[in-house]
Amino acid sequence: MKRRSPAAPLLLPFVTFGIYTLVWFVKTKNEINLVAHSKIPTAWLLILPIASIWWEWKYAVGVEEATNGGLGRHAAFWILFLLGPLGALFVQIALNTAIDSPASRTGARRDPVLA
Asked: For the chain, N or C: smaller number of CB within 10 Å?
């Protein structure tokens, strides 16, 4: 996964009228699917009202897998759902932390049953 500035998903949506949020979701979704072998569906579902909530849940599950449980699915979902760009800041910080962790460098994944 690519390390990104946490300020980007917080500030750029205001400059780009929300378009960067969609770009950020798509880019991080693709990387999460590759690294964590998640099954986050297409981001086109974000434009449909009810489907976007389901998509955010699937994204939150992927975040949990990509961070090896560092940010749980429930926390990631509610942070993104309630806080918008501020939530994206916290998710990006969690993703950056997972990238910097020694487990991500060796390819080891934490088993949630044993944790």
From this structure: C
Q: Give the model's pLDDT for residue 108.
A: 52
In eight-state DSSP terms, residue 37 is -
Q: Is 79 helix (H, G, I), strand (E, B) or coil?
A: helix
CA distances from 78 to 8, 15, 95, 110 (A): 20, 24, 16, 23
pLDDT digits (tens, 9 = 90+) for 67-110: 999 999 999 999 999 999 999 999 999 999 999 987 665 555 54
Q: Which pTM was predicted?
A: 0.86
